[in-house]
Amino acid sequence: MLEISSDVIRGYNDTMILSILLKEPSYGYEISKQIKTISDGKYVIKETTLYSAFTRMEKNEYIESFVASQDMSGNGKKRTYYRITDKGKEYYHNKCEEWELTKDVIEKFIESN
């Protein structure tokens, strides 16, 4: 199976993560699982890439982290969760617009068979 190169998708890791966080706060492993599931296994985000994205997005105030003494399903395990901020929602919508423009330009150079 052909996999997506991390070089190709790197600029949109934040967008994918924010898309998931728009629905509800979540934690690293669950976000990683959702990215794999939503992409039908065509993209698996590396743990280092994921946590680098969290650090960068927290610094830019797109997300904020919090520690929950129980996970959202009520299990007693402490986890660090992330939630999107208003600034993160604005960034997400800007990246979606940028993607539409990018896709439009790139498609002009892709030959259909």
Topology:
Elements (H helix, E strand, L loop, with lengths): L5 H4 L3 H11 L2 E2 H11 L8 H13 L3 E6 L10 E6 L1 H22 L6
Antiparallel strand pairs: 1-3, 2-3
Could you please describe the fold and organization of this structure?
A three-stranded antiparallel sheet has the order 1-3-2. The chain has 113 residues and is an alpha+beta fold. The protein has helices at 6-9, 13-23, 28-38, 47-59, 86-107, and strands spanning 26-27, 63-68, 79-84. The chain has a single domain (9-106), classed as Arc Repressor Mutant, subunit A (Orthogonal Bundle). The protein contains five helices and three strands.
CATH superfamily: Winged helix-like DNA-binding domain superfamily/Winged helix DNA-binding domain
Task: Report the major sheet.
Answer: 3 strands, antiparallel
Strand content: 5-15%
Report the principal-axis shape: globular
Number of separate domains: 1
Class per helix and strand makeup: alpha+beta
Key attributes of the depicted protein:
113 residues, alpha+beta, 3 strands, three-stranded antiparallel β-sheet, Arc Repressor Mutant, subunit A, 5 helices
Compact summary:
With 113 residues, the chain is α+β, with helices and mostly antiparallel strands. The protein has one domain (9-106): Winged helix-like DNA-binding domain superfamily/Winged helix DNA-binding domain (Arc Repressor Mutant, subunit A). The chain has helices at 6-9, 13-23, 28-38, 47-59, 86-107, and strands spanning 26-27, 63-68, 79-84.
